[in-house]
Amino acid sequence: MTTAPMPEFPAGFRWGVSTSAYQIEGAVGADGRGPSIWDTFAHSPGRIADGSTGDVACDHYHRYREDVGLLAGLGVSAYRFSIAWPRVQPTGAGAATPAGLDFYERLVDELLGHGVDPVATLFHWDLPQALEDAGGWLNRDTAARFAEYADLVAARLGDRVKLWITLNEPFIHMSLGHGMGVHAPGRMLLFDAFPVAHHQLLGHGLAVSALRARSGSPVAIANNYSPVRVAGDTDADRAAGAAYDALHNRLFTDPLLGLGYPDGPGFDEGVVRAGDLDVIAAPLDVLGVNYYNPTGIRAAEPDSPLPFEIVPLEGYPRTAFDWPVAPDGLRDLLVDLRDRYGAALPPMQVTESGCAYDDVPDADGRVDDPDRIAYLDGHLHAVRAAIDEGVDVTGYFVWSLLDNWEWAEGFTKRFGLVHVDYATQRRTPKSSYAWLRDRVIKP
Ligand code: FCB
């Protein structure tokens, strides 16, 4: 597939790809790893679309050298992976299991040996089950446990990880995991899930200090954002749009950047304690932005438990996930974040951007994915457009290096630049991999 020439990006712009532990590693029983909430959830009947689990996934735990070879071949300067908390602390407390950290040390050293910066996310949703049994993120104590875990990781890897990301998408973990019950741990609390927001943010803030005490590397958080498109022109529709925007786009970012929580349903007495907001507002070096699509919102029906209704957006091409392909949303988002937060906003890196398509090898074993090329091309032009408007964006990570285990969708959604045959674990770079390498990273 041919695309218009890619505009140049600023010198030093970080090109990367992202993955997460439970989605690729497998080896769930290896070297003392404890169970996480995702092991429990995936093994519960009816939770995952195809009945699969992450027990084996891409077997990356055993094939990481081959996968780092794929990264090196792609030419990226950074790799964003996540560390499985239950490999480091099988029950989420106490001393580190050395063998668990050994794996990440081997991975980090392999990356550095290939000139790829390790970017480590500490929490990509795989909470140790033992902590969930004690209340999980509904329990304030989990924030303190998280900071201890961050300290253990940074004590081993603080000299080699080039960028720390504390949490991945705390909004999605709260909403899908604790509000709607479609992700682990499968709680359906609706707005009673709010303590999960505050305790994750508190854990983030405490972890920032732990990381800074052990490592000179910059610290970030990766938030999920979705620009709101109000579908309707009544005041009620606009109010619903603002309510959704506060929940999805501001609930986590306002307090991180020192503005406190946005007005809204609010927290129960005793959840937010004196001093918490200062901990949460610890200065960030980078804001990680995960973007997939905008969200259509209109006023809710009178009997709805929610103050808004999510509606499909018409007029866009769609991915295999049925998500609208809207590169303009990424440009708008980056510009809006700058306009909203001004000088409080650190430089941003797009820490996830990508799409699922039903990619299948042809008779010769090649995997052609022109839709992914078009998707990435559009989104990279959108980032460039934001930079042209003066927004400070210093990196872009494609989700994902490999096809992998997509949470509640199991193996049914393929996001990779590299196709994975799950029966044989054969990796086949798709045409998007070559396009990204030849047209974008090393033109
Ligand atoms: C994001 C998650 C990531 C992956 C992509 C498709 O919300 O952070 O793990 O599932 O969506």
Automatic annotation (TrEMBL):
The lineage of its organism: Bacteria, Bacillati, Actinomycetota, Actinomycetes, Micromonosporales. The active site is at 169 (proton donor), 352 (nucleophile). Belongs to the glycosyl hydrolase 1 family. InterPro entries: GH (IPR017853), GH_1_N_CS (IPR033132), Glyco_hydro_1 (IPR001360), Glyco_hydro_1_beta-glucosidase (IPR017736). Substrate binds at residues 23, 124, 168, 292, 399, 406-407. GO terms for cellular component: cytosol. The keyword Hydrolase applies. This is Beta-glucosidase. Its EC number is 3.2.1.21. Pfam families: Glyco_hydro_1 (PF00232). One of its GO terms (biological process) is cellulose catabolic process. It catalyses: Hydrolysis of terminal, non-reducing beta-D-glucosyl residues with release of beta-D-glucose. One of its GO terms (molecular function) is beta-glucosidase activity. Keywords: Carbohydrate metabolism, Cellulose degradation, Glycosidase, Hydrolase, Polysaccharide degradation.
